[in-house]
Amino acid sequence: MTINWAGLGAVFLVALVASVLFVGLFSVGIASWTRRGEAAVNNVLAIVCFVLCAGIIGYGIFAIAHK
Amino acid sequence: MDISLLVIVVIVTALAFDFTNGFHDTANAMATSIATGALSPRVAVGVSAVFNLVGAFLSVQVAKTISSGIVDDTKINAAIIFGGLVGAIVWNLLTWLLGLPSSSSHALFGGLIGASWIAAGSGAVHFETVLEKIIVPAIASPIIAGVVATAATFLAYKLTAKSEKTERAKGFKAGQILSASMVSLAHGTNDAQKTMGVITLTLVTAGALPSGSNPPLLVILGAGLAISLGTFLGGWRIIRTLGKGLTEIETPQGFAAEASATATILASSQVGFALSTTHVATGAIIGSGVGKRLSEVRWGVAGRMAIAWLFTLPAAAIVGAIAGRTAALGTAGTVIVALAAVAIGVGAYLLSRRQPVSAGNVNELPSTTTPATASA
């Protein structure tokens, strides 16, 4: 029997990077959205983060449909 | 025996399995969103049902390789498929009654393995493939999802540490609607397809479709609707166990758990692992409990789930073997198995009425069900 270690490792790495990136971006977005002070800068940063998150979701749907 | 009767019975049974698959697995996508109040229970199961249906139409890759080389496709017949489905349904109903999330995929594979083994000998089951494609991913996937969710949860709290608490909760609540929908979508593409595959395989064996066919539109629609209807009814017992039983979940944890579960499911379907949404979702929820400092994971509940996972495949295999063997006796055998399956379904429903869990009490702590599950 052969265990597909490379496959398992790839799943782990891809899942880790994707999740950390997605959750990290969303968290930064929320942090800057709720931060007091320079509203314009904070809001732009937050919106950039949320747009990037939407991009990751879009890629996820693309990946489902084209596997 | 009349082939067309058996084929019809198999198709109906496949749709019934798909239905149990739906309400068994609603929890995977929606348990944390319901627990945190990101979505009201009724809205949550509605959203999940819609995304399951959409997911069913997105891809047919999984449906093409239903048995994934686990059993010898050339030795399979309608009676074996029927037996396997009955084994899977019975196991799904029993674990639902106990509020235990267990893998519907494992139940289906177990049922097929048992039925094939008894009908066509151990040579019809590729045990090495079973180990490689089912057992190894079953152990690895919850651990992977758990570690990923731990990291994601830790990060979510770290990065938003300075934010005002209620503002933060509101933000992640909105995020959870998205992340839960993604889990449902991934679930629809994975699980609805298994039923499509079973029905298509049955139609091919009966000569109604040429070998190697894609599932016809009507089959895709039927399977998608069956799983969505099951999802919409909501497996409240399992939702409560996952959402409230394992750990107290806040919105950042729910968001991180759902995002990690989706990423793990998508990554592994790209690599070709037939993993279970249930194992991944459970691992991610436990991970989100570990990732938040000072939050408590009820390892006893987690352990009871792990035991249910261990038994899923062999238990479904035994029921599948008995059902398949009986169905192979002819029309009378098929009718007996079908009646027995219906009786078990009705029995499970009646037993569930004694301690009902519904949209109304899904978020109350599962202390009332503890005696029932502990005695199992």
UniProtKB/TrEMBL annotation, chain A:
<keyword id="KW-0812">Transmembrane</keyword>
<keyword id="KW-1133">Transmembrane helix</keyword>
<feature type="transmembrane region" description="Helical">
    <location>
        <begin position="6"/>
        <end position="32"/>
    </location>
</feature>
<protein>
    <submittedName>
        <fullName>Uncharacterized protein</fullName>
    </submittedName>
</protein>
<feature type="transmembrane region" description="Helical">
    <location>
        <begin position="44"/>
        <end position="65"/>
    </location>
</feature>
<keyword id="KW-0472">Membrane</keyword>
Automatic annotation (TrEMBL), chain B:
<keyword id="KW-0813">Transport</keyword>
<dbReference type="GO" id="GO:0035435">
    <property type="term" value="P:phosphate ion transmembrane transport"/>
</dbReference>
<comment type="similarity">
    <text>Belongs to the inorganic phosphate transporter (PiT) (TC 2.A.20) family.</text>
</comment>
<feature type="transmembrane region" description="Helical">
    <location>
        <begin position="134"/>
        <end position="157"/>
    </location>
</feature>
<dbReference type="GO" id="GO:0005315">
    <property type="term" value="F:phosphate transmembrane transporter activity"/>
</dbReference>
<keyword id="KW-0592">Phosphate transport</keyword>
<feature type="transmembrane region" description="Helical">
    <location>
        <begin position="217"/>
        <end position="239"/>
    </location>
</feature>
<feature type="transmembrane region" description="Helical">
    <location>
        <begin position="329"/>
        <end position="351"/>
    </location>
</feature>
<feature type="transmembrane region" description="Helical">
    <location>
        <begin position="43"/>
        <end position="63"/>
    </location>
</feature>
<protein>
    <recommendedName>
        <fullName>Phosphate transporter</fullName>
    </recommendedName>
</protein>
<dbReference type="GO" id="GO:0016020">
    <property type="term" value="C:membrane"/>
</dbReference>
<dbReference type="Pfam" id="PF01384">
    <property type="entry name" value="PHO4"/>
</dbReference>
<feature type="transmembrane region" description="Helical">
    <location>
        <begin position="301"/>
        <end position="323"/>
    </location>
</feature>
<feature type="transmembrane region" description="Helical">
    <location>
        <begin position="75"/>
        <end position="94"/>
    </location>
</feature>
<keyword id="KW-0812">Transmembrane</keyword>
<dbReference type="InterPro" id="IPR001204">
    <property type="entry name" value="Phos_transporter"/>
</dbReference>
<keyword id="KW-0472">Membrane</keyword>
<keyword id="KW-1133">Transmembrane helix</keyword>
<feature type="transmembrane region" description="Helical">
    <location>
        <begin position="106"/>
        <end position="127"/>
    </location>
</feature>
